[in-house]
Design brief:
Pfam families: DoxX (PF07681)
Protein name: DoxX family protein
Strand content: under 5%
Order of helices and strands: HEHHHHEHHHHHHHHHHHHH
InterPro entries: DoxX (IPR032808), DoxX-like_oxidoreductase (IPR051907)
Helix content: 55-70%
Keywords: Cell membrane, Membrane, Transmembrane, Transmembrane helix
Organism: Haloferax namakaokahaiae
Low-confidence stretches: 1-30, 352-358
Mean pLDDT: 83
Number of domains: 1
Oligomer: single chain
Length: about 375
């Protein structure tokens, strides 16, 4: 094992020990929830399922979604438009590493300056460490310097934090984000690409003294380059889990908080239905998007719906922490470009090369 690999392992181990020493994180009031009285989940669900109008709306929505999917598969309308859209999205594949870095780096920098650990509801007992961690890891990922190593450290820190504070599941999208960045690297533009270009050019002075590129970076890329095709798979499954968790546990399984949000922002004035139906409908919609992403079915359409949900939330809830959603915005945008990837329903449904054998993001 090279000294640099040993150094990276030592750094990761130190990060884990520091996080453990910080102690169990404390969760604050979740995002925009104004506080609420507890509501029994069983009674809440029963009240919705025994309301004929609510049941009709939910069943009608399910039938409509299934019907639209079936009609599209049967008729395949506007084939030239769909093909052009896919080809255009695929032409942006070289931007995926940069987009992934923005998706993870920006919210981490914001978390560092705001003093929270990945999620706005989680703070540690060591605010100085939390700030330094977020700002340092975030800026290194944004600049694309030591990208793969930094992503690995960030992933380890998140997993250790999650073991100490389950509330970090609210920021689960960092897992696929870090994994994807570790596979594709910094891409272009990035400091890693500049350094790699200088190290690969035998005419430069740097190529004579570089201790890292040929010994570590190049062999790692060669051994893992075949895995970059699975980046869309990793991102959509990770995001799917996050959506299902948010839809089920934060809405349907926490009806008191969700109903309080509906009342706080008078959401029934936007769509005049019972608050209970609002909560269940929103939760099931998020869960459905998550299921579609995990299955890789209509991935780009599901990503577009997710972006619409985020945008509506940000405009509809004025005090919602925008930075907390940047990672979700960026990752679903990456899926909009990459599509479903391998092991997806889309790959089975489409005969074109993009869905069967997706282009790999540029690895630098």
């Amino acid at each position: 094992m090279s000294s640099r690999v040993r150094g990276a392992a030592a750094l990761a181990g130190a990060m884990a020990l520091v996080l453990v020493a910080v102690g169990r994180a404390s969760a604050h009031v979740k995002y925009v929830t104004p506080g609420s009285d507890p509501v029994a989940v069983a009674e809440f669900v029963q009240s919705v399922l025994t309301d004929p109008f609510a049941v009709a709306v939910l069943l009608g929505g399910a039938v409509t979604v299934a019907g639209l999917g079936g009609v599209y598969l049967q008729l395949r309308p506007f084939p030239n438009d769909v093909r052009t859209f896919r080809e255009t999205m695929s032409s942006y594949q070289n931007l995926v590493p940069w987009l992934l870095r923005l998706s993870v780096g920006l919210p981490l920098v914001g978390a560092g300056f705001a003093g929270y650990f990945f999620s706005p509801i989680v703070q540690t007992g060591s605010p100085t460490f939390t700030r330094l961690f977020g700002i340092t890891v975030g800026f290194l990922i944004l600049f694309g310097f030591g990208t793969r190593l930094v992503a690995g450290v960030g992933l380890l820190a998140y997993l250790v934090g999650l073991a100490l504070e389950p509330a970090l599941l609210l920021a689960f999208e960092y897992v696929p984000g870090f994994l994807a960045i570790a596979l594709v690297g910094g891409g272009k533009p990035s400091a890693d690409h500049v350094i790699a270009s200088m190290a690969a050019d035998d005419r430069t002075l740097y190529s004579k003294i570089d201790p890292f590129y040929r010994r570590v970076a190049e062999p790692f890329v060669e051994r893992t380059s075949h895995l970059t095709a699975f980046v869309p798979t990793i991102v959509r499954i990770g995001l799917g889990i996050a959506f299902i968790y948010l839809g089920i546990t934060q809405k349907i399984m926490a009806p008191g908080d969700a109903l309080a949000v509906v009342a706080k922002y008078d959401l029934t004035a936007v769509v005049p239905v019972a608050p209970e139906l609002w909560v269940v409908g929103a939760g099931l919609t998020e869960a459905l998007v998550g299921v579609l992403l995990i299955a890789g079915a209509f991935t780009r359409a599901a990503s577009a719906v997710a972006i619409l949900l985020f945008t509506t939330t940000l405009f509809g809830l004025p005090d919602d922490p925008v930075l907390a959603h940047v990672s979700l915005f960026g990752l679903v945008s990456a899926l909009l470009i990459a599509g479903g990837g391998p092991f997806s329903v889309d790959a089975l449904l489409h005969s074109d090369e993009e869905s069967v054998r997706p282009s790999r993001p540029t690895v630098e």
